[in-house]
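User: Quick sanity check before I run a bigger batch. Here is a single chain. Can you write out its predicted 3D structure?
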Amino acid sequence: MEALDLGMVTRVMIARYACAVGDFNPIHLDDDFARRAGLPSVIAHGPLIGALLLHAAFRAAGAPQSGKLDLRLREPVFPGDHLTAAVAGDGAIQIKDTAGRVKATAHLTRDLC
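Assistant: Done. Predicted structure follows.
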């Protein structure tokens, strides 16, 4: 699998995701709250990153009949991060920002049943 462009994470995307799933935790929406928590700004919801990965993978390879996504978040994803996904040596999909920092790892598996 060549690198998949997951696109740039934006504040609008984060806010829309919060509305869609009903997760209004201020760490995702309020910069002052995020700064008091020691972050430079709000962070994206973890499942949003998983959704971006699945969308890009389905675009590239088509949807499997059934399967499972095992997503492990490694670092916060901030508004303005442009993400790509590529297969690592161990078969995991690594999600990286433009600086090469691994933000998450994922395993996509197909169920045999």
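The chain has a mean pLDDT of 90.

User: Great, the batch can go ahead then.
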